[in-house]
Amino acid sequence: MKRINQLSPEEAELVVLAATHGFPSPIPTQNVSSDEFLPRPQTVRQREFEARIKDMGDELAARQGMSRRRFFQTAAGMAASFVAMNQVFGPLFRATEAEAATPELANQLAETLKGQFIMDTHTHFLQDSVGPEVFGTFKGIRDAWHKLKFNPEMPDRPATDADLKYENYIKEMFLDSDTKVTLISSAPADEKHNWFLSNQEMAEARAKVNAQAGTRRMLSHAIFTPGYDGWLEEIDKAVEVYKPDSWKGYTIDDNIHQKTSRYPWRLDDERLVYPAFEKFQKAGIKIVCIHKGLFPPSAEREVPRLRNFVDVSDVGRAAKDWPELRFVIYHAGYRHAGGGDPAVAIADFKRTGRIDWVTDLGEIPNRWGVSNVYADIGATFAEAVVGDPIMATAILGTLIKGLGPDKVIWGTDSVWFGSPQWQIEALRRLEIPADMQKEHGYSPLGPADGSIKTGIFGENVARLYGYQRKAERRPDRLDLLKAEYEQTGPGRSNLRYGYIHKPV
Question: How many domains is the chain partitioned into structurally?
Fold first, then answer.
């Protein structure tokens, strides 16, 4: 396999494309990675889950007179996946066999939540400026779609860069999920051509989506890059020209090429970074989103020089020094996502009651006397709920207890994980076990439309961004497109974009 970005030649030999080799169930049956890290091999329990959902899918699909693939595109197929999850991992999800076996019941339950306000402020797609090594990954995925005849309208030709960008983002985010509003993000790289989107391209994407919808359906970041030539002038340009809704920074600098990253930095660096915060405050764009975590012990062994830049030890002082800014910590700082092992995290949690860097994040308000720190659950929730959903409940319980239920916000890191509908359904159905609530002082997550989950899905971040939901989220052209798509479209693909580990 051709080397792509962070994977070494040896690691590349251990992975295959998720879209062509992964089982397309409504919920991933093993962890999926981008080309940033080597995904974990499928665990014993994940194999058991896959076997159960295959058997259940065969039986229920035959009973309903449809193919298994088609069944897995339905609400009943999604419910069946959570029934299988409960059978393997324990009763953590609200799902019943009756819902899985009765399409009318599953559709009715899905319909009641279809209008729920979901604002996903952690999303991506690729643009023309991205280097060919990044596009190479996604071209393979697109060719797999064509081979599987996923979309009969797909041109009968090899994939092109244009196939991998904006159009599929619209489908996955707005048509195949209940997401109502998104924020487009990017990731910096030392080489400009390896940015997913430039600041200009994010602003253009926001304008295009909102023009297409006729309402404000997309917000956008601008990336800031301490240490780069002309980086402060780029902030001035962004304020004047691109008018971002918030800022995005990677203290690790080049997250894709960590081994050669040249400009890591810390939030509490007064000399280097505080001049940027002053500009943010003066411009009135006061939301600062920071990539943290996704740096398990294996990554620390490979790139030890970055260790001091990726945890959350710099957040408290920055938040204290800049009380008018709002610091949103992406991925909630979770260390063990991104190639880490949830078994290690769970063992540590059972022994100490702590989760590496998530607990540290949750303790910042009390330790520093601040109320301007938020957690975006990003790839952390997606990985944890697939790796071991107990870890997902511990992470949510810790964040809600420490930061407060109004400081935890929804993000999915899509479209890397495919349509985010499975993540939406997972949070809707998930509950923290009663014994964990009692032992750790966690609040229950409650029903899908209860105050905790409603806050996480959209109300918290709408307040943060000043998004006037009742005024701005009115019926629009994307709603009409979705209604037509649900009647005539091919349905949710259940594909994931990236890599899975070869069978061991």
Answer: 2
At a CB cut-off of 8 Å and minimum separation 6, what does 407 contact?
373, 374, 375, 399, 460
**189 shares a domain with 90:** no
Residue 290 lies in a domain: yes
Q: 330 phi and psi, to 5 degrees?
A: -75, 145
Domain enclosing residue 71, as ranges:
9-115+495-501
Answer with the residue of higher pLDDT: 130 or 79.
Answer: 79
- Quote the CA–CA distance of 281 and 264 in Å, as a whole number: 23
Q: What single DSSP character describes residue 6? A: T
For helices 75-89 and 44-63, give the axis angle rounded to 10 degrees: 140
Interval 229-247: pLDDT, tens: 999 999 999 999 999 999 9
Same domain, 74 and 181: no
Rounded alpha-carbon distances, angstroms, from residue 311 to 183, 343, 345, 413:
24, 20, 15, 19
Cα Rg for the chain, rounded, in angstroms?
Answer: 21
Beta bridge partners of 184: 123, 220
- Distance between CA atoms of residues 356 and 353, nearest Å: 10
